[in-house]
Description:
Elements: E1 12-15, E2 19-22, H1 26-32, E3 40-45, E4 48-53
Antiparallel strand pairs: 1-2, 3-4
Amino acid sequence: xxKIEEQNVRKLTKTGRQSICVTVPIEMIRDLGxxxxxxxxxxxxxxxxxxxxxxxKK
Length: 58
């Protein structure tokens, strides 16, 4: 079991030639109600990335 401070620390993993993956804690995915293969929008913001549901208009 990871320490609480380390639970949200993730590594970037190379997949294929030009893609990088990051895993998201399953608790966060369940809280959002997201499912496997669901489309999301990744947007670059100051200091990081923002991930949103593709259909959400918020």
